[in-house]
Hints:
Elements: E1 2-4, E2 7-11, E3 16-22, E4 25-29, H1 37-46, E5 54-58, H2 64-67, H3 70-77, E6 81-84, H4 88-91, H5 106-118, E7 131-133, E8 146-149, E9 158-162, E10 167-171, E11 175-177, E12 184-187, H6 195-201, E13 212-215, E14 221-222, H7 228-237
Parallel strand pairs: 4-5, 5-6, 6-7, 10-13
Antiparallel strand pairs: 1-2, 2-3, 3-4, 8-9, 9-10, 11-12, 13-14
Amino acid sequence: MKLGPHLHRIGNDVVAAYLVDTDDGVTVIDAGLAGHWSELLTELTAMGRTVQDVRGVVLTHGDTDHLGFAERLRREHGVPVHVHAADADRARGGDKPKPSLGRWRPGAVLGFLAYAVRKGGLRTTYLTEVVEVHDGDVLPLPGAPRVVGMPGHSPGSIAVHVPVADAVFVGDALTTRDVLTGRTGLQPAPFTDDPAQALDALARLADLDATWVLPGHGAPWRGDLAAVQEQVRRAAAG
C-alpha cells in the first residue's frame, strides 16, 4: 500500500511494517511476521524495486511480531538490521518481562492469534547479528532515519523519524488498534513493560516535524504530533 511519494506499508491493521523509498534505495522499518516476506517482495515489485534495493532494516524494538523477515534479509541478502542497544538481546531471543494482559476480548485476541499463525508468527527467527543504535543517531540509510528513544514498551523502544516521508514510525510506543480488545484510536499499546514510562516518552513526539504517525498495530494516523501524548493519556485513563 502506497501512503505517500516515499512511503509504503505492508501487512494490515493487525501487524504492519513500512518501507521508505528514495533515490538511494529502500529502508524497511520493522519486519512484521515471517509470512510478510511475500508481501515485501510484492510491494517492492510494485515500487519498481527488488530486494537488492533494500539497504537496511530499522527495528522499533525487539519483540517477535516486529522481527519477522529481518534475519532472512540479513542472512540471505546481507541487509544490516538496526536495533537500539537496550533491545539487542531481546532481538536475539534473550529473556524479556511478561507484562500482564490487562483488558481483553475473546474475539479480538482470537483474530490476532489467527492472523499471526497464518503469517508465520509461531516460527520466529531471531537475529544473530545486529547493528546497535542509540538515541539521536541519524542512520546512513535511505531517508536518513533518526532514532528517537521511546523507552517504556521495552527498554530499547524507539521511534524512527524520516523527514522525507513526513513520518514518524512509533512501533509499539502507542497503538491505534489494541490487538487484545479491538479498540481503535490513539491509545497505549498492550504488553508494555513500563506503561508510565511509555506515556512519558510520548512527549518526545511533540517536537518532530511530521504528519504521519505509523504504529506497528493499527491504522496510520495523521494529525498534530503535539496532541498525541494527551490523547493517549486520556485513552489510558478511560
